[in-house]
Amino acid sequence: xxxxxxxxxxxxxxxxxxxxxASGQRRCQICEIFIKWEGLWCPCCGxxxxxxxxxxxxxxxxRARVEAEAQEATGINSIEKVEETxxxxxxxxVEAKPKKVRAAKVKTAKTTTRKxxxxxxxxxxxxxxxxxxxxxxxx
Length: 139
Fold this sequence. Notes:
The structure is a single chain. This protein is mainly alpha-helical. The protein has a domain at 6-83. It is 34% helix and 4% strand. The protein contains 2 helices and 2 strands; from the N terminus they run ββαα. It has helices at residues 56-83, 120-138, and strands at residues 26-28, 33-35. A two-stranded antiparallel ribbon has the order 1-2. The chain is elongated, with a radius of gyration of 41 Å.
């Protein structure tokens, strides 16, 4: 993957007063440039763009800025909620249909007749007895 020069169209200027990542810029490690791009992948080389700083100091700055913006947003929303008068309508009660109870299938035990296992010793015993019986019958 190499830089093809397409990224120069999306090159971002350094913002004044805020950080690059806080303003929405992303960095491509292959092209070595900050670009203004909404995707996760570089339009030029296809490499994954960095959306967060790697340095601990700048990570802390970005985190603090994001938390401050979140508090401002929730603070403004809570003030707007107090100023607005909201009329509450009567709740609609919906009765649930009773669930159908399925009849449980009863497992029936299958009656199988198994032949007793015959081991080698029992086979030879039966052969001996049969030969003895046949000799006794012949005599």
